[in-house]
Amino acid sequence: MDFPPPNNRSERGLDVSGSADHIQALSSPRRVATLTALARRDESMRVEDLARHVRALERETDVTAVSRREQRRVQTSLQHAHLPALAARSLVDWEHGNDWVALHPDVSSETLRETVGEALPTASTRHIRTLSDPRRRQVLELVEECETPLSIDTLARRVASLETGGGSSSPPAQTMDRVRISLVHSHLPALDDAGLLAYDRETGTVTSTALSRVGNE
Q1: Is residue 179 a part of any domain in this protein?
Q2: Of 103, 121, 139, which residue is a domain's last?
Q3: Which of 29, 39, 44, 77 could crosslink 102 through cysteines, CB 3.0-4.6 Å?
Q4: DSSP conformational letter for 64
Q5: Residue 120 — very low, low, confident or very high, per pLDDT cuts 50/70/90?
Q6: 115 & 172 share domain
Q7: Cα(135)–Cα(132) distance, rounded to whole angstroms?
Q8: Confidence bin at 115 (pLDDT 50/70/90)
Q9: Over the stretch 24-41, which tens digit does the pLDDT of each residue have?
Q10: Are both 25 and 117 inside the same structural domain?
Q11: What is the pLDDT of residues 163-182, one digit of tens each?
């Protein structure tokens, strides 16, 4: 059974603002949100609870508004990518397979709150960055036009048709395949993470959200 790490943080704290290694860690918005959530609680957290708080910070909403699906997806990314990277830089106290995580004992939560507070992007900043890609803007427009969920195949065909200027004719199969791969592995997850649309990986469908209209304005 895993137990929470002891809360014996050093009074002097670790300066996380200057080293290149720490700056690299703070270049990831999700890692910044992770450190922010831990600094605000200033105590050990279960990874599943941390994932819920991280997603709430990313969406700028209350933790009660985070769905179980969102929580599981964020938890997976924390366990496989972000927590190992933060632990390797001695910013968090966590070992692979442990259900608990805390700030590293040498990290001052007060200093960290000041540092990551400046690095945490606002929702509007994330939306601008996400929508800098023209294909993502095209996807949002197509999704917003539909009152019912779109299948990935239908969405890929419409995107490919618009980009190739094919009009009502079907685009080449190879073009559709390339578009579909980019949607599944890059654009749809990014738009879903930003809350600009809802991408259901299990059913392979995409649905508009209230924010999709805002993103296109």
Answers
A1: yes
A2: 121
A3: 44
A4: G
A5: low
A6: no
A7: 9
A8: low
A9: 666 677 888 898 899 888
A10: yes
A11: 888 665 688 899 999 999 99
Distance CA(48)–CA(209), nearest Å, equals: 25
Residue 26 placed within a domain: yes
Measured over the CA atoms of residue 212, residue 133, residue 117 and residue 48, the dihedral's sign is positive
Residues 148 and 182 in one domain: yes
Quick check: is 6 in a domain?
no
Residue-wise over 169-204: b if at least 16 C-beta within 10 A, else e?
eebeeebbeebbebbeeebbebbbbbbbbbbeeeee
Query: How far is 153 from 181, CA to CA, in rounded Å?
Result: 10
Find where tokens 């390339």 sit: 178
Domain ends where: 85, 104, 121? 121
Q: Do residues 114 and 152 both lie within one domain?
A: no
Q: In DSSP terms, which residues pair with 100 in a beta bridge?
A: 46
CB 78 within 8 A of CB 42: no
Q: What distance in Å separates the CA atoms of residue 54 and residue 82, rounded to the nearest whole number?
A: 12
184 CB contacts (<8 Å, ≥6 apart)? Answer: 152
Q: Domain total for the chain?
A: 2
Helix (H, G, I), strand (E, B) or coil at 101: strand
Place of tokens 């809350």: 195
Pair (181, 137) in one structural domain: yes
Q: How far apart are CA 69 and CA 166, in angstroms?
A: 37
